[in-house]
């Protein structure tokens, strides 16, 4: 039976529910149960199985507890044992590379999802700590290496490798280079790399390599983890930059030249604003409607006084996309009502008085202030970014789409013509709350 046939059957079994699964297993002969327990493709998720194609590096980017270590161990096991009783072993000499030697032993070899635990009892490899190697009954050998000592990879040669927590290595590029020089045995030596992503140059280079196949796994994908744990980490970290990296396995990066950075936004998070003296809803209306239209940026924000200085709190991102004018106008007015706002600030460059008319039809009593952009977006956003740097703008929640747009805004190579609608609305909101109040005509001329 092929890997994908077994995966398909596993998906069917998974939908049966606990009681029917138990009945299914209890109805099997003991020999079949023993085989099934060791049949990784039957139990694995699709993102834990190696991609098809002629890749040289399989990069599995995963969150904490997403099952990436088990996937790496099972790939090595398949290379040593063969993917079926008749296929035979593919690799005889392998490399296991971890951040440290202790990590290799405690995680890759002896860990709960390590090589010795996932191997079938009659074919469990023997670990020799003094020689730093793992030996299987069929003679296959895996040598253990630490990223703290890249030169230890000089000389040995391999037909396969597993690299764990690549982004936590001490000497990332040097260790990877030395390993690649040693992957020269057999017809097509390959490596699997399992890691929680971090924005480091070696990972970006690996992602850009045409010979790299990429899989992604999230913490919540792992059905084995306790629901209480998943609920707790999602409640505490869901939507945060840390959570997106450590739970969702996303590569969160700061492009060169951007006005905002991830660290700046992390320190801006403050979910408990003081009493706000003014709340505005800022709108960046789209010029068109439909599936390909730009978003209508809608940001709710308020102002408070702390130590005599005006501070702003971003309260919500209500941005909508692809809607007709009357629809996004209703979304604006819903935010106006929900936050009991004092005013709506709307950019009038795309439609002029039509914007006031559309908003007035949705709620004739809401005060609307039209603003006009006479300078470029970057010039208008710079004073707002400076307020973030001074820790005078705070985020009352985690706004992933807005923060992504902020961290790409102004970056070198940022897509020309791509309108940062959420950022535009944010800039108008903070400008109305603080910049205009503090600096008046002196800065308004720039805006």
List keywords for this structure.
single chain; 447 residues; alpha/beta; Rossmann fold; Nucleotidyltransferase, domain 5; eight-stranded mixed sheet; seven-stranded mixed sheet; 15 strands; disordered N terminus; disordered C terminus
Describe the overall structure.
- The chain is α/β, with parallel strands linked by helices and 447 residues long.
- It has two domains: 44-244, Rossmann fold; 262-444, Nucleotidyltransferase, domain 5 (2-Layer Sandwich).
- The chain is 38% helix and 19% strand.
- It is built from 18 helices and 15 strands.
- It has an eight-stranded mixed sheet, sandwiched between helices.
- Helix 8 links the parallel strand 6 and strand 7.
- Helix 13 (325-338) packs across helix 14 and helix 15 crosses helix 17 (421-439).
- Residues 1-8 and 439-447 have low confidence and may be disordered.
What is the mean pLDDT? 85
Rg (CA only): 28 Å
Instruction: Kindly report how far apart the N and C termini lie.
Output: 66 Å
Tally of alpha and pi helices: 18
Helix content estimate = 25-40%
* The CATH architecture of the largest domain: 3-Layer(aba) Sandwich
């Amino acid at each position: 039976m092929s890997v994908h046939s077994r995966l398909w059957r596993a998906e069917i079994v998974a939908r049966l529910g606990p009681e029917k699964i138990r009945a299914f297993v209890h109805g099997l002969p003991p020999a079949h149960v023993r085989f099934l327990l060791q049949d990784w493709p039957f139990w694995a998720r699709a993102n834990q199985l190696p991609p098809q194609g002629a890749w040289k590096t399989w990069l599995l980017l995963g969150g904490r507890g997403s099952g990436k270590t088990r996937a790496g161990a099972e790939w090595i096991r398949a290379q040593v044992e063969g993917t079926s009783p008749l296929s035979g072993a593919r690799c005889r000499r392998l490399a296991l590379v971890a951040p440290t030697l202790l990590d290799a032993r405690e995680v890759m070899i002896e860990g709960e999802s390590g090589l010795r635990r996932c191997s079938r009892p009659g074919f469990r490899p023997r670990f020799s700590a003094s020689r730093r190697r793992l030996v299987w009954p069929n003679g296959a050998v895996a040598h253990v290496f630490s990223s703290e000592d890249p030169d230890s990879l000089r000389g040995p040669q391999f037909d396969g490798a597993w690299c764990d927590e690549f982004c936590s290595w001490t000497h990332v590029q040097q260790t990877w280079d030395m390993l690649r020089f040693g992957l020269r045995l057999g017809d097509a030596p390959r490596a699997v790399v399992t890691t929680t992503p971090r924005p480091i140059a070696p990972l970006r280079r690996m992602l850009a390599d045409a010979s790299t196949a990429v899989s992604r796994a999230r913490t919540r994908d792992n059905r084995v983890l306790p629901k209480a744990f998943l609920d707790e980490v999602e409640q505490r970290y869901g939507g945060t930059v840390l959570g997106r990296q450590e739970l969702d396995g996303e590569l969160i990066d700061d492009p060169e030249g951007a006005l905002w950075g991830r660290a700046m936004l992390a320190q801006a998070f403050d979910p408990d604003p003081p009493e706000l003296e003014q709340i505005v809803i800022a709108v960046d209306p789209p010029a068109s409607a439909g599936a390909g239209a730009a978003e209508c940026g809608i940001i709710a924000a308020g102002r408070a006084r702390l130590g005599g200085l005006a501070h702003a709190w971003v309260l919500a991102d209500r941005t909508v996309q692809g809607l007709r004018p009357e629809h996004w106008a209703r979304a604006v007015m819903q935010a106006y009502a929900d936050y009991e706002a004092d005013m709506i600030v709307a950019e009038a460059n795309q439609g002029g008085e039509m914007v006031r008319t559309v908003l007035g039809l949705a709620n004739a009593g809401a005060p609307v202030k039209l603003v006009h952009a006479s300078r470029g977006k970057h010039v208008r956003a710079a004073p707002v970014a400076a307020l973030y740097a001074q820790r005078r703008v705070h985020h009352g929640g985690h706004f992933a789409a807005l923060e992504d747009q902020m961290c790409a805004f102004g970056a070198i190579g940022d897509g020309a013509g791509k309108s940062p609608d959420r950022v535009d609305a944010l800039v108008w909101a903070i400008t109305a709350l603080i910049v205009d109040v503090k600096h008046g005509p002196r800065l308004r001329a720039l805006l």
